[in-house]
Design goal:
The protein is about 65% helix and about 10% strand. By secondary structure, the chain is of the alpha/beta class. α23 runs parallel beside α24.
Length: about 675
Amino acid sequence: MNKIIRAAIAGNPNSGKTTIFNAITGAHQKVGNYAGVTVDKKEGRRLYKGYEFIIYDLPGTYSLTAYSVDEMIARDFIIEGKPDVIIDVLDSTNIERNLYLCLQFQELGVPVVAALNIIDQAEKMGIRIDEKALSSVLGISFLKTAGASGKGIDELLDAAIAVVERKEKLQRCVSYGPELEREITAVGALLERDPAFSSAYSPRWTAIKLIEKDAHAYQLIENHPLSAGIKLIAGESIRRIENHFGRDAEIAVSEQRYGYIHGAVTEAVRREIDVRTATERADSILLNRYLGLPVFVFILWAVFQATFKLGEYPVSWLEIFFSRLSAFASGVVPAGLPRSLVVDGIIAGVGGVFSFVPLVIILFLCISILEDTGYMARTAFIMDRFLHIFGLHGQSFMPMMLGFGCSVAAVMAARTLKSSRDRIITILIIPFMSCGAKLPVYVLLAGAFFYHNPGNAVLAVYLTGVVLAVFSSLIFRRILFRGEATPFVMELPPYRIPTIRGIAWHVWDKLWQYFKRAGTVILLASILIWTITSFPKPAHNGGDTARIRAKTEQALEYSIAGRIGKFMEPVIKPLGFDWKIGVAAVTGFAAKEITVSTLGILYKAEAGENGENESLRRALRDDPAFNPLVAFVFMLFILIIPPCFATLAVIRSEIGWKWLFFSLAYTGALAWLICFAVYQAGIFVV
């Protein structure tokens, strides 16, 4: 029977943790949630040399003194979860900064193996690391790895086995100098008097955290029988340290730790060249104070142009496929309700969404390339100065960018923000980002009414969402969340050449989520929408094609969906919407892709009696209720209205019912007001 080793992959953000995790586990992964929170937890397995590794991919953190939710999760999992070994992933191009966390792991008393990751990039930069010397000086096994290519993965697992089996006993701790060591020993001695506490938590690590005034450490000792005495001794130690060093105790500890690290790096690391790296040269342009933002906007424009230009033919091929599938189904499925369900419900609904899969693939491909090169991480810096004008934190831009993929993931990503105020504001504005579910709606309408340049029309909607987000944040900051914005500090990874495997992994992961929604939620929604558009039925006596079309229109109005639309029409008519657009908008509240399914069902129901369904885009153009102005206003409406049910559930769990109801009211009211203003202004101009 294989022996189990529980390994936690940890490290600084952008150090390549997830790449190492993927390299170790391959496809043997599952995603769940950490207990009590909604942030994703990746868990994978690997059989290796008679051992079964259970691997946990932890959120990135810079220190075990945690502030953001992600940092707290990483800290608590290591302290409370007690993995058998920590695989600490370090960015070899920034070794000193990354070693700071590594040595804190070491002080916990948990076996540590360090992966000197991205070693290929470090060596190109002229950085030479003697991993054996570093292991000898710090007492930790260091292995060179390149997660993207799989280099050093087996050696990393070998080292983890050796450390767990105690075949290598290199573990030791930082020496903080006589003044600090005296105080650490005094506080630690009191902590050791309770065997139960000592077995649960490292006394030395706890003593250091108490001297650093870590709030979590003070919570840990509340149940210690000598809690009052420990707090008293720790307070006296802090006063003596601050008097001796002339600075805050936390800073004194940090400086000593960095001094220890600097000594080790001096022994084991050398730079062979001292010139500007390719990353620094690229950043001189891409992060330039004046050029950075225009370049970023140009890149976004190019992405959307490429998405539509490259996706034009595959989309038309899929439309032809589903049209022929519809015609085939019309010939083999018995006439009446069964044929209507299959052709007008399932094929028209699900097919309408699947037709845009090529565009989704291309967009996700472009975004994945930008992520893997390291450029997406820089967008936060590019936007920081601009966002601060509106009282928004620069780091908020990363969750906002994730919002272009999925709002659920974006809301979860806001956990990285240290200030609860910044976090709430960011979560409230994420719904203004155009997630992947909104893209099919934009593509359908832009292709139908802005076919000369659909990419520009869609980009205009995306940028409108960003503008609404930043202006909303300004309003929230001025009225609801007054106070100074927190400073923005973030490390930038070096630019890297994306790997085909890495990009394929990202695209497939996002695409699979899209397929699952299309095959489950959208399928069920399409059947439900077909039902409410088909029943109840009025009397129908036949007639010529024109009369059939007229009666079909009457039947739709007579149905449950038609009655709902007619009931809503007085409210939405000032926006330029008729009852059919109203029905499509309402169904979009569940999931935005369903808007396309609804339009497909509503307009495919008006197709010819021969089963030769014209494209949905052409059907929309032929409807007198639709025109370019109405189409653009409808795109804005889909952009602004409250997000899907899944996102609303995550917002509730992250910031509570109060802010969920506020978000619903704010986005709903803003959608009506913006669309009313644009439509009325458009009528006046035209």
